[in-house]
Amino acid sequence: MVLEPAIVEGDRRLLGRMVDNLVENAIRHNEQGGWLRVRTGEDEEQATLVVANGGPTVSEQDGVRLFERFFRADASRSRRTGGTGLGLSIVKAVVDAHGGHVTATPLSGGGLEVRVGLPQGGARAAG
Fold first, then answer.
1. pLDDT confidence band for 124 (50 / 70 / 90)
2. The domain containing residue 24 runs over which residues?
3. Which CATH number is 48's domain given?
């Protein structure tokens, strides 16, 4: 876990839900003995949050659709892992409401990296 400052302005409750959903999703859709990585930071333009895991293989096509409500890359996952298929669509709605962007990139060998970029806020962005 690499947690550098990533200052944004916004609704604390919604941003917290976004982070919770990303981490919970990465844990839920991981594999036995898998890995989880969380990184935060800033560059000159945005604050970033990256959550990645070593779960099952996700196709490029499914990676694009993961933010659709109720979409599941593997329909059998609902029986194994539970959930409603809303987690990543909620993430996208929160990111959109805060003027940011989110992408999901399938990793070679299995797993997924979800990258969130949000406009910087607070004292650092003003300086």
1. very low
2. 2-121
3. 3.30.565.10
